[in-house]
Amino acid sequence: MMLAVPGRSPFDWLTVPDILADLGIPLADWQEWETAGNVPAGVVWPDGQVRISVLSYGRWLDSLAVSDDTTPPSPNEVRGTILDALEIAAARGLSHAELCRMFAHHGVTVPPDVITATLDDLIRNGVCHSHTIDHSGPPVIRYRFGRRP
Q1: Dihedral class, residue 128 (left if φ above 0, else alpha if ψ from -120 to 50, else beta)
Q2: In this structure, are strands 128-133 and 140-145 parallel, antiparallel, or unpaired?
Q3: Is residue 101 scored above 70 in pLDDT?
Q4: Residues paired with 44 in a beta bridge
Q5: Which superkingdom heads the taxonomic lineage of this protein's source (predicted)?
Q6: Do 103 and 58 touch, CB atoms closer than 8 A?
Q7: Residue 42: pLDDT above 60?
Q8: Three-state secondary structure along the chain?
Q9: Taking the domains of the chain in order of start, what are their residue ranges?
């Protein structure tokens, strides 16, 4: 999946005016779609504005597209998405399973071995590091962001 809004992190939030500007439509069209239940899910923030995640917006746009294109993401797209996710997760980091679920949740098919190879490459290049958490249960390896290449 390509980012719906170039230059924005997939974890950023958009306002309805941001989306209107991106689509080039008037508020009346949006309100009509909203009444029919045909807009991406949003969250009402404390300031009263509805915000929609870039990922949710992208998925919504993808659901509108009529295409048989099932081309998997390129290695650079996988790498960039993983880097963005690790950077946002910060010290908490993400496990391999969480990264797999992140892609699957957004309808993107990335084989687990591709994610493994990408993480191995990022570790080799010092861009991220792994940390094993061994609490009461099976150990879990979490990957954390190190630095941008």
Answers
A1: beta
A2: antiparallel
A3: yes
A4: 50
A5: Bacteria
A6: no
A7: yes
A8: CCCCCCCCCCCCEEEHHHHHHHHCCCHHHHHHHHHCCCCCCCEECCCCCEEEEHHHHHHHHHHHCCCCCCCCCCHHHHHHHHHHHHHHHHHHCEEHHHHHHHHHHCCCCCCHHHHHHHHHHHHHCCCEEEEEECCCCCCEEEEEECCCC
A9: 13-64, 75-145
Question: Global pTM?
Answer: 0.52
Which two tokens mark 96? 């391999």
Residue 103 corresponds to which tokens in the numbers above?
A: 């892609």
Contact call for residues 5 and 53 (beta carbons, < 8 A) = no
**Sheet with 43-44: strands ordered across:** 13-15, 50-53, 43-44
CA-nearest of 146, 140, 102 to 124 is: 146
* 75-145 CATH fold: Arc Repressor Mutant, subunit A (1.10.10)
**The pLDDT of residue 2:** 43
pLDDT of res. 118? 92
Taking the C-alpha atoms of residue 144 and residue 85, their distance in angstroms, rounded to an integer, is 9
Model confidence at 1, in pLDDT bands (50, 70, 90)? very low
Is the separation of the CB atoms in 18 and 5 below 8 Å?
yes
